Amino acid sequence: MSQQGQASAMTLAERARVGYQLAQGEGEMFWLLGMHQTIKVGGSDTAGQFGMIEIIVPMGLGSPWHVHPDEDEWFYVLDGEVTFYVGDTRLALTPGSFAFGPKGVPHTFIGASSEPARALVGLQPVMFEGFLREVGQPVSEHVLPPPLNQQGDANGRPVTDGRQLPREQLAAIGKRHGLVILGPPGPPPGR
């Protein structure tokens, strides 16, 4: 059996103990708020100490304006462009660029290129994963969700990736997972 085949046959506890590899497009995948997110390193792999998610962000979409009181977050852009706001600072990230959002500092990100951007997001400790699991829609394909004006995904299933939830409900779910939602995606209020 190949190393990759062995890794996929392992239990989560085994892979956390001995290590594992994921190829491009592999990992636990979700649609969240119009984006595609793939867990590369989950809380179960690191006893909640660290996590890494690969995100694909279409132009104009991104995270709500939010703060993690107890979780640091950082971004490394692989493809495309992402505008990242940390506090009042606007950062234009291109491939190879890095940004850090320290715990306690409000931040957001928005896809800024005509082709969807792809980035790695690190979290320490990893609390956001709970929000992703509760709000996100698990998927088995490495494709973006359809626009909300369509009736569902390619197989006719409804899209339930959180875009249809009222902000108050998203905020309540976020609070349970160490995330305080302050506003919609976009620049900080007043900018």
Q: Which CATH C-level class is it? A: Mainly Beta
Please give the largest β-sheet. Answer: 7 strands, antiparallel
The CATH superfamily appears as Jelly Rolls
| CATH architecture tag | Sandwich
Question: How many DSSP E strands?
Answer: 12
Spatial strand sequence of the major β-sheet: 8-5-10-3-2-1-11
Strand proportion? 25-35%
| Terminal CA distance | 55 Å
**Radius of gyration from the alpha-carbon trace, in angstroms:** 16 Å
**Contiguous helical run count:** 5
Number of domains: 1
Helix content: 10-25%
* Average pLDDT, all residues: 89
Q: Which stretches are poorly predicted, pLDDT < 50 over at least 5 residues?
A: 1-7
Estimate the global geometry from the Cα principal axes. Answer: globular
CATH topology: Jelly Rolls
- Topology as a string of helices (H) and strands (E): HHEEHEEEEEEEEHEHE
**What structural class do you assign from the helix and strand content?**
alpha+beta
Keywords:
single chain, 191 residues, Jelly Rolls, 3-stranded antiparallel beta sheet, 7-stranded antiparallel beta sheet, alpha+beta
Describe the structure concisely for a colleague:
This protein has 191 residues and is α+β, with helices and mostly antiparallel strands. It has helices spanning 3-9, 12-18, 43-46, 128-135, 167-176, and strands spanning 28-32, 35-41, 51-57, 65-67, 72-79, 82-86, 89-93, 98-101, 107-111, 117-124, 137-139, 180-183.
Topology of this structure?
Elements: H1 3-9, H2 12-18, E1 28-32, E2 35-41, H3 43-46, E3 51-57, E4 65-67, E5 72-79, E6 82-86, E7 89-93, E8 98-101, E9 107-111, E10 117-124, H4 128-135, E11 137-139, H5 167-176, E12 180-183
Antiparallel strand pairs: 1-2, 1-11, 2-3, 3-10, 4-12, 5-8, 5-10, 6-7, 6-9
Helix pairs in contact: 4-5
